[in-house]
Structure formats: C-alpha cells, structure tokens
C-alpha cells in the first residue's frame, strides 16, 4: 500500500554502545547511527528521549501502529541487565519505525536522528483535520471499501493476542525464574571446576594434568561501570527479552484495536442521532405547528436551524466512516506485516537458543570426558 510499509527496507539504523554518564545526573547514553534517504546520521540520546519521541508519535498518529518501547523502571535502571534489555528493545523500536515511511520520515523522527533536542509538536489537531491528513497520506486505504475478510483477520488476531498474552506472561515469569536458577547453577559449576577440584586434588596429592581450561564465568556479575555483557549473558537473556518485546507489542495492538472499536461505536451513535434528526426535521416540515409555538420561533427559522444541525451530523458521520475505513484497511495491512515480523523473530530466537544450549552442552560434555579420562589414567 502507498506510503505505508517499506517492503524493501534500505534504511540502516543501529542503537549501540550504551555509556553511563556520571556527571551531575547519572544516566545512560545510547548511540544511534545509520543512513536513510536524507543521508547519514549519528547522534546520542538517553532512554527518556526515546520515550518522548514515541509519545509525540502516538499523539500525532492516533489510530496508527507505533512500535512499543520498554516501560520505565523505578529502580535499577543503571543495572547491566536493564541497560542490555533496553539496548535490544531500542534497536527493535528503531528498526520497526524504519519499516513505516510516514513514521520514519516524519518531522519528529528526523529531528530525533539529527538534533540533540526534540521539539514539541502541535497536539491540538481536530479530528476532522486529522482524518483529512490521514486520507491525504493513505489514499489507497481511504478509497478501498472494507473487506469482510479484513474484519475477520483483525478480529481473529485480536482474539489470538488476548489469549496468548497471559501465556507469554507466564513464560516471562518462568524465564526469569530460570535465569535465577541458571545463575546459581553456573556459579556452583564454576566453584566446583575452578576451586574445589584443584584444591581437593592438591590436598590429596593427586597428580592430575592441568587440562582444565574453563575460566570463572562472569555471568550476571554486575559491573556498574561497564555496559558490555559477555556473549553468554546475551544468549541467556535473548528469550526473556524477546518475550517482553512481544508482550509490549501485543499491548500496543490491543489498545489500537480497542480504539478502532470505540470509533465504530461512535459511528453507530451518530447514525442513531442522524435518524432522530431526520425524523424531527420531517415532523416540523409536515405538522410542526405546536412545536414551533413551544419554541417561540418561526417554522422557517426552526427548519433552517435543524437542517444545519442535520448537515453537521452528516458531515461528522461521513468523516468518521472514512476514518474507520482507512484505519481498518491500514490495520489489516499492518497486522499482516507484523505477523511476518513476529514469525521471523520467533525463528531467530529458537535458532539462537538452540545454538546456545548446544554449545554449552558440548562444553560440559568435553569437560567431563576429559576429567573421566584423567581419572581412568590415574587408576591404572
């Protein structure tokens, strides 16, 4: 569809190298760099400025999908784990923005990419003007009649994310618990391999070759002055972070679909008001003498007044129907894109987690095979 999703995305954007600023106020700075049709960009922003950008976009582009951001945290925003999680989620946010030209090339995003400070936009836009703005940007969506298939897909997807959200929330808790369990496991394995076995062999004067090459793991050590996690740490968190990203995205889509449903209810209410207004005008025109006497006005003036109100209702109804058609068609298109996006993320996560567990299993097998061989040598 025109001016919506960039199928062949040539925009390059990366959020990287988080750095803790320890001046008067302690906060984390994220580097953003890349290139688009306007040229190269390289700038630094803190998390609160990403948050401000999304708020401006959500205010300007109501009824439109705006990628999710991680929620703010009250405590622990300087911890290594929070910084790394935000880094992954901010990359997701910027890459999702880059798929939608009307968002990426908006004044707000372009200012964010090339200026240190974000300008506040005018939020006092009347719905009529907003509808005209959307229609001018997405004429294809506005002109197309709503297909029942699109309505069905939206409703099915809405039911899906409502049903899957509590499941993902449970998985998120399980993954967090698993991280804590694995933390304890790796700590104990490190102690066992690095300290216990060498000391035990030394005390018993067992002559075992120094074949152990595994070093003490740095998993989950919280170095406040370093924003870099080891590869093992990153792999360990990938499933947990991905679940959080999808939960955030699902919440955005739930709110968007609910806004659309509210607009549908407004249209139904306007239709009822319009019918009543038509009946009232007809009553005045045909036999409204008693009504006119009660209102202390002439029949012509009352008819003129009510016809004006009727036209205003018709105008508002036409605008809302056009807006509803547009956002329904656009939402159907966005959902198709996001479903592909979610599928790609899912396969990426499964692949990375499988590689992680396979590598760690192989390391442990190799270690214990070597240990067993050395013990068998000593026995002979």
Strand count, sense and barrel status of the largest sheet are: 3 strands, antiparallel
Gyration radius, in Å: 30 Å
What structural class is derived from the secondary structure elements? mainly alpha
Shape by Cα distribution: elongated
> Number of folding domains?
2
GO molecular function, one term: phosphatidylinositol binding
Domain PX: 8-120
Pfam families: PX
Keywords: Coiled coil
Question: Could you characterize what this model shows?
Answer:
This protein has 380 residues and is mostly helical. It has two domains: 1-117, Phox-like domain (PX Domain); 127-380. It is 69% helix and 8% strand. The chain is built from ten helices and three strands, in the order βββαααααααααα. The chain is elongated. Residues 8-120 form the PX domain.
């Amino acid at each position: 569809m025109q001016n919506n999703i960039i199928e062949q995305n040539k925009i390059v954007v990366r959020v990287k190298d988080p750095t803790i600023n320890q001046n008067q106020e302690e906060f984390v700075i994220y580097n953003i760099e890349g290139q688009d049709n306007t040229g190269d960009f390289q700038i630094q922003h803190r998390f609160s400025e990403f948050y401000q950008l999304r708020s401006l976009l959500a205010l300007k582009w109501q009824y439109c999908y705006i990628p999710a951001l991680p929620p703010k945290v009250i405590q622990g925003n300087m911890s290594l784990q929070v910084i790394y999680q935000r880094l992954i989620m901010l990359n997701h946010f910027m890459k999702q923005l880059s798929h939608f030209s009307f968002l990426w090339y908006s004044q707000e995003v372009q200012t964010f990419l090339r200026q240190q400070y974000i300008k506040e936009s005018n939020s006092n836009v009347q719905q009529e003007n907003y509808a005209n703005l959307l229609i001018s940007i997405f004429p294809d969506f506005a002109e197309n009649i709503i297909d029942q298939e699109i309505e069905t897909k939206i409703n099915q997807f809405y039911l899906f994310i409502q049903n899957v959200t509590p499941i993902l929330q449970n998985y998120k808790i399980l993954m967090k618990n698993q991280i804590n369990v694995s933390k304890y496991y790796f700590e104990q394995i490190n102690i066992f391999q690095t300290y216990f076995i060498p000391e035990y062999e030394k005390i018993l004067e067992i002559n075992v070759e120094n074949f152990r090459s595994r070093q003490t793991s740095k998993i989950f050590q919280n170095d406040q002055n370093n924003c870099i996690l080891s590869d093992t740490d990153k792999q360990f968190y990938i499933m947990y972070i991905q679940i959080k990203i999808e939960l955030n995205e699902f919440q955005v889509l739930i709110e968007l679909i609910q806004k659309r449903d509210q607009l549908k209810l407004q249209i139904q209410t306007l239709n009822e008001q319009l019918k009543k207004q038509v009946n009232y005008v007809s009553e005045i025109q045909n036999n409204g003498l008693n009504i006119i006497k009660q209102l202390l006005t002439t029949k012509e003036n009352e008819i003129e007044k009510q016809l004006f109100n009727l036209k205003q209702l018709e105008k508002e109804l036409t605008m809302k129907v056009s807006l509803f058609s547009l956002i329904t068609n656009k939402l159907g298109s966005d959902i198709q894109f996001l479903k592909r996006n979610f599928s790609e993320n899912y396969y990426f996560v499964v692949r990375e987690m499988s590689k992680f567990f396979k590598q760690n299993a192989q390391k442990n097998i190799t270690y214990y095979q070597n240990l067993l061989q050395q013990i068998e040598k000593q026995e002979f």
